[in-house]
Amino acid sequence: MAQRDSIPAPNFIRNIIAEDLKANKNEGRVITRFPPEPNGYLHIGHAKSICLNFNLAAENGGTCHLRFDDTNPSKEEIEYIESIKKDVQWLGFNWGKHLYYTSDYFEKLFDYAVRLIKDGKAYVDSLSADEIRKYRGTLTEPGKDSPYRGRSSGENLDLFERMRAGEYEDGAHVLRAKIDMASPNLNMRDPTMYRIRRAVHHRTGDRWCIYPMYDFAHCLSDSIEGITHSICTLEFEDNRPLYDWFLEELGVHHPQQIEFARLNLTHTVLSKRKLIELVKDQHVTGWDDPRMPTISGLRRRGYTPEAIRDFCERIGVAKRDSMVDVALLEHCLRENLNKKSPRVMAVLNPLRVVIDNYPEGQVEELEAENNPEDPDMGTRKVPFSRELYIEQEDFREDPPKKFFRLAPGREVRLKHAYYVTCVSVIKNEKTGAVTELHCTYDSETRGGWSKDGRKVKGTLHWVSAAHALKAEVRLYDHLFLKENPIEAKDGTDFKADLNPDSLETLTRCRVEPSLADVQPASRYQFLRQGYFCLDSADSSPGLLVFNRTATLRDTWAKIQKAQEKG
Ligand code: ATP
Ligand code: MG
């Protein structure tokens, strides 16, 4: 079971469970569940719910179930189920033998419905969907009883069984709970329990042509599994009376529903419907596009499960909706990657450098530390030769005041290598662009340190031209420009706010040869450039493709200070 990675932030549900245990409620059992509907890939908001449910169970010696809420036959797909299982496991959680499907309860749910009919608590309504809507009333007006509300339980039972047997068209009848058409809570105005729907279900095939509605199926699935704490997001607060009603009326095990605020992240949308739209309209390359807030997108981008779990712990769990800055997620990621990623040198926009006084044909294997944060990670050899590449932006012919990198006549350090001085600049005659630099090196500065104590202000990364590997590097930015892309109240589509520059592809990059055997999804810090990982989908033996996981610039501390100031 995954460990928590940082100090717990306030979590009111943790407190409720501690109190329940003190009072020996549920004989000390804690059984939670994560109940995704398999109609999309999981996103970082789901990760909050996964961490919450699995951690609360683990902390209290309980269990957490993974239950697919597959009551809606047309929307669910096997692909989604497989991706959800993979993502939960990758996050570090294990449901053991507790993998369930609501569709496995269809027979039991049918029996519960029959019991409610027999008790006079449910009836078959033959109004059309439109009429049902009209009869429901509004927030300010009570609803009206359906003319079919008074059917005898015998008649209801007969109709319901014939609904199941497939005697009626889709929409001809529904089964409704008989509660209160004047309830101030619209959910309690005789909610629909079953509808007729001829659709092939991915698990039950065409065995059923009636399907239970969420509110009826969900509470009873929780009850059947012996769930003690049914944790869900705030929008279900108004459904809680209905959750309680079904369980009360049937007199079955009654889990406690507790609502918490869903995660909202800046510059991100976290709704499956919107994410599906981005995929279908090809604004991204797929559910696992590294810009997507999906677990699969974050994984491909190079996020670690530890960083995501740490984030979910730090944001805490509260009852009030809020917006979390995506900079906090990135901060958790950097903290984790800084400790464990090996450093390597990669040049994203190469500029050729010739060391005039370095012997032609000579190659030196220089020693380079793998991670200054962790000496146990050891060292590697990096080849140095007469022709190198440095970063274009590390040279200025006319350096401004605070530019301490390379310029004509200036000496800088090449990391792990030598001091070099720029002696001449070669340009494209037509465009004036700098195409090559000539430098000299000081052979007395091997390793990048001068014996005479001479200091240089700039240290540059580099690669040996003959030894470096070609690579493509993809730089990512926020998918949305606005902090809250959903906020468009004027009816503007949320997609209007997509960041046109969220992906920049660099195809001429050169990386040091130690990356020849790099494994998909392994993560590195490219010195001075950020954290990168090999793209698991598009890399091939002939083409290294790296995703920038994060830059080195951590904005979280700054944001926090500004927030403290108010
Ligand atoms: P979406 O709003 O993205 O369509 P959903 O709530 O319909 O999500 P489900 O598959 O029903 O998706 O979600 C499974 C669980 O994850 C639910 O318990 C839900 O409350 C929780 N969940 C979904 N989104 C978030 C979020 N942004 N923050 C926290 N929990 C979430
Ligand atoms: Mg849902």
Q: Runs with pLDDT <50, length 5+? A: 1-5
* Beta strands, count: 25
How does the overall form come out from the CA principal axes?
A: elongated
CATH architecture of the largest domain: 3-Layer(aba) Sandwich
Major sheet size, sense and barrel closure: 7 strands, mixed
Distance between the termini: 39 Å
Supply the CATH class of the largest domain: Alpha Beta
Taking all residues together, what is the mean pLDDT? 95
Strand content: 15-25%
How would you concisely characterize the structure shown here?
This protein is of the alpha/beta class and 566 residues long. The chain has helices at residues 12-22, 44-59, 78-90, 106-118, 129-136, 153-164, 214-224, 240-250, 272-280, 295-301, 305-314, 326-340, 556-565; strands at 31-34, 63-68, 99-101, 122-125, 174-177, 192-196, 210-212, 229-233, 256-260, 343-344, 346-347, 350-355, 364-369, 379-384, 387-391, 411-414, 419-427, 434-442, 459-460, 463-464, 469-476, 503-511, 523-526, 530-534, 544-550.
What does this molecule look like?
It is a single chain. By secondary structure, the protein is of the alpha/beta class. It folds into three domains: 12-260, Rossmann fold, CATH 3.40.50.620; 272-342 and 471-565, Beta Barrel (Ribosomal Protein L25, Chain P), CATH 2.40.240; 346-461, Beta Barrel (Ribosomal Protein L25, Chain P). The chain is built from 13 helices and 25 strands. The strands form six sheets. It has a seven-stranded mixed beta sheet. Helix 2 crosses helix 11 (305-314). The longest helix is centred in the N-terminal third of the chain and has 16 residues, at 44-59. The chain is elongated and about 100 Å long. The model is unreliable at 1-5 (pLDDT under 50). Bound molecules: adenosine-5'-triphosphate (ATP) and magnesium ion. Adenosine-5'-triphosphate binds at residues 35-37, 45-46, 48-49, 232-233, 262-263, 270-273. Adenosine-5'-triphosphate is lined by residues 35-37, 45-46, 48-49, 232-233, 262-263, 270-273.
